[in-house]
Design a protein that fits this description.
heterodimer; A: mainly alpha; 9 helices; globular; B: FAD/NAD(P)-binding domain; 2 domains; 13 helices; binds flavin-adenine dinucleotide; binds iron/sulfur cluster
C-alpha cells in the first residue's frame, strides 16, 4: 500500500521506472526491485516519525552487528527545513523562500504523472518511451530516483530483499565484516 | 582587563581546528569550538564514544547530504570571470562536509608530505607570467618535526622505503601500510614498466590497532563516507584528545557570523554566533582561531570586514587541477573493496627533460603536475546514474564497466596562484541564516592545462599496458571546447581548496604573517589551507595539520619542535631523496 501516492499514480510510477531500468534475465529491474515504493517513501517521508530521510546505524545487520539502519535518524532543525521544502515546496513561507519560491517534489510528481497520462499503464512500451521523452526534466528526476530505489539500501523502501545487489554481485554494506586482505589484493 | 569565556575560541572542527584544540588544551588552555554543522561524530560527554551514525549508506552520504552542507540551505555560486556576469551556477561548489569533524573524516585520507622544493617554488623554479609564484615563509627542514607530529596524531600508515622522490624523514611512519587494492597493483605494475615510481600511499587509516581505534577492515565505503569503525584518525583523534582534557567545549549548530574587534581594531574580543534557534551569542576570548576551511574562512573575514588591508582576503584561490585517466578492463577489478586509493606516484612533480621541452613549447619556463592516485572504486548508484536509462541499462549494470572493471588515475595537478581567482560575497544569493553566499571566480592558468595535456597520454598508455581495452581522460575543471565545459560540471570539483588568506611577511601583499596570524589583528590566527602561498601537487591535509601544530605551539608559547636529518648511511637516510 503506498503511503503518499494514490494507487493509480503508484502504478504509473511502476510502469515508468520499468522503462528506465527494465528487467532482464538475472536483473529484477526497477519495478520489481520496488523503486516505486522507494519514491513513495521519499515523497511521504514526513508521514512517519522520525522522517524516512536518513537511515540509522552503525550497521544494517546484513553482515552482523547491531541492525541500526532501520532506526531512522531524527532530523536536525535545518535538515527538516531543507527536506520539507524539497518535498513539500516552499508554499509561500518566508523561512523556506530566502532565495525565492521552491517547487516541491510532491508537486513535480503529481504534475509529471498526470502528463504521462491516465492510460500510461495501458499503452505499449514505445508509446510509454515517447511520453517520457516528451518530459525530459521529469524523466531525468524519475531516473535518478529509480537508481536510488533500485541500488540503495533496502531500508529506504526499494531494492527489495537486496535483489539488485545480488544481481549485480555487489555485496552492499559490509560493515562490520569488511573484506579480508586477500579479497582486497587478490585477483578474485 | 576584559573578562573572557576561554583562552581561545576556534571556528570550525575540521582537521585544522581540531589540531589546534588538541595542542592548546594539552598546553593547559581552555577552548570553545564553534561548528556550524551538526554533530554526528562522537558524544560530547566522557568517554566521547562514536554516535553510530556513520554508515555504509550511499543514499545518506552521496545523495542526501547527511553531513551537510545541504545546497538548499547553504548555496554557493560560481563563475569563471567577471565577463560571465554575477554567476553561472548556484548550488554545490567544492562542498566539504559541514559537521563536527569537517571534511576530515569523510576524506579517504591520502596524507603525503610536501617536499623541499614545494616551499621554494619562486626561488628554485622561478616566476611564471600571469601567476604570483612565491616561496613559503617556512621550509621543509623546519616543517619536518611538525609533519612527524601530524602523522603521529592522526595515525598515518605508510612505507618510507617506497618513494624515491620523498623528502627526508626523521623517523618511519607510525604504522606499516595496509593491504594493496588489486586494481592499484595492476596499474602500479604497468607504471613501473614505463619507468614510473608508484609507492604505497601514506594514509590516515589504521593498518593495525592504533591509539585505541581498530584496524581498517577494507569496507570500501571510504572516500565520501565516514568510517563506521573509526579506523580513520582525522580528525577524531585530535578532537577526542582535546575533549578528554576537560578544557575543550564543542558547540555544534553554532554559525559564526563575525569576528568582533575592540575599539582599536587591532585586537579581537571574540566572535558572535547564531545558535540553532537563530539566537545570537557572543564568545569573548583572548584569541580567535579561524579554521573554517579555505572557502568559509575568507567568507567570514569578508563578512566581518576584518584582516583585509591588503585587499587579498579571498584572492589567490587555488584547487588542484584534476586529470582523471580512466581505463575499462575486460576483467573484474573489485575496486569497491579497500581504501579507495592505495598507491601514488610523484614522478610528475619532478619534471623530466621531455616535460621541460613540452613546457617550453607551451611558452612556459616549466610546469609541474601532481601526485597520481591509483584507485578506481565506484558504488552501484554512482554507476547507475552514469549509465544511460533504457533497454541496455540492466545488462550494462550486470557487466559493471565502472564499478567493477574500471581503474582510475587522478592527477592532483599543481594550480598556480592567480590574484583574479577568488572567493567573494555573492550580491544576491543568501544562506539560510540570511548572509551572502560565497562566490567563486576561477579559471585555470595555462600552466595547469599544459601539464595535464602532457601527462594524460602517458597515463592512458600505462592503463592500456595494464590491460585496459578503452581509456579516456577528462579534467576538472573541463577544458574549453571539451565535453562538459558548458555544463554544471564547469566548476572544479576539487575538494582541495587553498590560498585564500595567503601567509608571508609582507602585510601589503599577504593576509597572514608567517605564524598564520592576521597582519591586521594580532590575536586572530588562521589554521587551515587558506594560508598556503602555493598549492604544490599533494593533498593538503597533512600540511594543514602540521602547520596547525606549528602555529598553535607558537601561540601557546611552547618551544619550536626540532628534528634531526638522518645520516646517509642509516636505514632512513638511504631512502631520503636529495
Ligand atoms: C571525498 C574527499 C576526499 C578527500 N581526500 C583527501 C586526501 O586523500 N588527502 C588530502 O590531503 N585531502 C583530502 N580531502 C580534503 C580534506 O577533506 C580537506 O583538506 C580538509 O578537510 C580541510 O580541513 P580544514 O580543517 O581546513 O577544513 P574543513 O574540514 O572544511 O573544516 C571546516 C569546518 O568549519 C566549519 N565552519 C565553516 N564556517 C563556519 C562558520 N561560519 N561558523 C562555524 N563553523 C564553520 C565547517 O562546517 C567545517 O566543519 C578530501 C576531501 C573529500 C571531500
Ligand atoms: S575502508 Fe577502512 S578506513 Fe575506509 S571506511 Fe572502510 S573500514 Fe574505514
Amino acid at each position: 500500500m503506498p503511503i503518499w501516492f494514490e494507487e493509480r499514480e503508484h502504478a504509473v510510477v511502476r510502469a515508468a521506472v520499468h522503462r528506465l531500468i527494465p528487467a532482464c534475465e538475472d536483473h529484477p529491474g526497477a519495478a520489481d526491485a520496488g523503486a516505486a515504493d522507494y519514491i513513495d517513501g521519499l515523497l511521504g517521508a514526513f508521514l512517519v516519525d522520525p522522517p524516512r530521510i536518513f537511515a540509522g546505524g552503525p550497521f544494517s545487520g546484513r553482515y552482523g552487528g547491531d541492525p541500526g539502519f532501520e532506526r531512522f535518524t531524527p532530523l536536525t532543525r535545518h535538515q527538516e527545513l531543507a527536506w520539507r521544502t524539497r518535498i513539500e515546496g516552499s508554499q509561500g513561507r518566508a523561512e523556506r523562500e530566502f532565495n525565492g519560491p521552491v517547487v516541491g517534489l510532491q508537486e513535480v510528481y503529481r504534475e509529471g504523472l498526470a502528463k504521462l497520462g491516465a492510460d500510461f499503464c495501458d499503452v505499449d512500451g514505445d508509446e510509454q518511451d515517447r511520453r517520457l521523452d516528451a518530459l525530459p526534466a521529469f524523466k531525468h528526476l524519475l531516473y535518478e530516483h529509480a537508481c536510488e530505489g533500485t541500488y540503495g539500501a533496502p531500508e529506504y523502501g526499494g531494492n527489495r530483499d537486496c535483489l539488485a545487489w545480488v544481481a549485480i554481485k555487489f555485496p552492499g554494506d559490509v560493515q562490520p565484516r569488511g573484506y579480508t586482505d586477500e579479497e582486497v589484493s587478490g585477483r578474485v | 582587563m576584559m573578562t573572557t569565556d576561554c583562552d581561545a575560541v576556534i571556528v570550525g572542527t575540521g582537521p585544522g581546528g581540531s589540531t589546534v584544540a588538541d595542542v592548546l588544551t594539552a598546553a593547559g588552555w581552555s577552548v570553545i569550538m564553534l561548528e556550524k554543522g551538526a554533530n554526528h561524530l562522537l558524544a560530547l560527554e566522557s568517554p566521547y564514544e562514536g554516535l553510530g551514525r556513520i554508515t555504509n549508506d550511499e543514499i545518506k552520504f552521496m545523495r542526501r547530504w547527511f553531513l551537510g552542507p545541504d545546497p538548499f540551505l547553504e548555496p554557493r555560486t560560481f563563475r569563471r570571470s567577471d565577463a560571465d556576469g554575477e554567476r553561472l551556477l548556484t548550488g554545490e561548489v567544492n562542498n566539504l562536509p559541514s559537521t563536527v569533524g569537517g571534511g576530515g573524516f569523510h576524506a579517504d585520507g591520502k596524507l603525503p608530505r610536501f617536499r623541499d622544493v614545494d616551499f621554494k617554488a619562486a626561488s628554485e623554479l622561478g616566476p611564471i607570467d600571469g601567476a604570483d609564484v612565491v616561496d613559503w615563509p617556512v621550509d621543509y627542514d623546519e616543517m619536518e618535526p611538525y609533519y612527524a607530529a601530524a602523522e603521529r596524531i592522526i595515525g598515518v600508515a605508510g612505507d618510507h622505503t617506497g618513494n624515491p622522490f620523498a623528502a627526508w624523514r626523521s623517523g618511519p611512519y607510525p604504522m606499516p601500510p595496509g593491504p594493496d587494492m588489486y586494481c592499484a597493483i595492476v596499474t602500479s605494475e604497468a607504471a613501473v614498466e614505463r619507468g614510473l615510481h608508484p609507492y604505497r600511499a601514506p594514509t590516515g587509516v589504521n593498518s593495525v590497532e592504533y591509539d585505541g581505534r581498530p584496524a581498517c577492515n577494507n569496507c570500501g565505503f571510504c572516500a565520501y563516507f565516514g568510517c563506521p569503525i573509526e579506523a580513520k584518525g582525522d580528525p577524531i583523534a585530535p578532537l577526542r584528545n582535546a575533549l578528554r582534557t576537560g578544557r575543550c567545549e564543542v558547540r555544534p549548530e553554532s554559525y559564526v557570523v563575525r569576528v568582533d574587534l575592540d575599539g582599536t581594531s587591532r585586537t579581537a574580543q571574540g566572535v558572535t554566533y547564531l545558535d540553532v534557534d537563530g539566537m545570537e551569542h557572543v564568545v569573548r576570548a583572548r584569541n580567535v582561531v579561524i579554521a573554517a576551511g579555505a572557502f568559509e574562512t575568507p567568507r567570514l573575514l569578508l563578512r566581518s570586514e576584518v584582516g583585509n588591508s591588503s585587499g587579498n582576503v579571498g584572492r589567490y584561490l587555488m584547487y588542484h587541477f584534476q586529470t582523471y585517466t580512466l581505463g575499462l578492463f575486460p576483467f573484474r577489478l573489485h575496486a569497491y573493496r579497500g581504501r579507495a586509493v592505495t598507491h601514488l606516484h610523484d614522478d610528475f612533480l619532478a619534471p623530466d627533460a621531455a616535460a621541460l621541452a613540452a613546457a617550453r613549447d607551451a611558452g612556459l619556463p616549466y610546469f609541474r603536475g601532481g601526485i597520481v592516485e591509483h584507485g578506481g572504486a565506484a558504488h552501484p548508484m554512482m554507476e547507475a546514474v552514469h549509465t544511460p536509462a533504457g533497454a541496455h541499462h540492466s545488462r550494462t549494470m550486470l557487466q559493471s564497466p565502472m564499478r567493477d572493471r574500471m581503474a582510475a588515475f587522478t592527477m592532483q595537478g599543481e594550480d598556480l596562484p592567480q590574484r583574479t581567482n577568488r572567493i567573494d560575497l555573492d550580491p544576491a544569493i543568501r544562506d539560510v541564516w540570511g548572509f551572502p553566499a560565497g562566490r567563486v571566480t576561477y579559471q585555470p592558468h595555462r600552466h595547469e592545462i599544459a601539464a595535464s595535456r602532457h601527462w594524460a597520454p602517458l597515463l592512458e598508455t600505462v592503463m592500456k599496458d595494464a590491460g585496459a581495452t578503452h581509456t579516456f581522460s577528462v579534467t576538472s575543471p573541463p577544458l574549453a571546447g571539451e565535453p562538459g565545459a558548458d555544463t554544471p560540471f564547469m566548476a572544479s570539483v576539487s575538494r582541495h581548496i587553498m590560498g585564500t588568506t595567503r601567509m608571508g611577511s609582507d602585510p601589503r601583499t599577504t593576509v597572514c604573517d608567517p605564524w598564520q596570524r592576521l597582519h591586521d589583528v594580532e590575536n586572530v590566527m588562521v589554521a587551515d589551507s587558506s594560508v598556503f602561498p602555493t598549492s604544490a601537487g599533494y593533498g593538503p591535509t597533512l600540511t594543514i595539520v602540521a602547520l596547525a601544530v606549528r602555529a598553535a605551539r607558537a601561540l601557546a608559547g611552547l618551544e619550536p619542535l626540532r628534528s634531526q636529518r638522518p645520516a646517509p648511511d642509516t636505514e632512513l637516510g638511504r631512502f631520503s631523496a636529495v
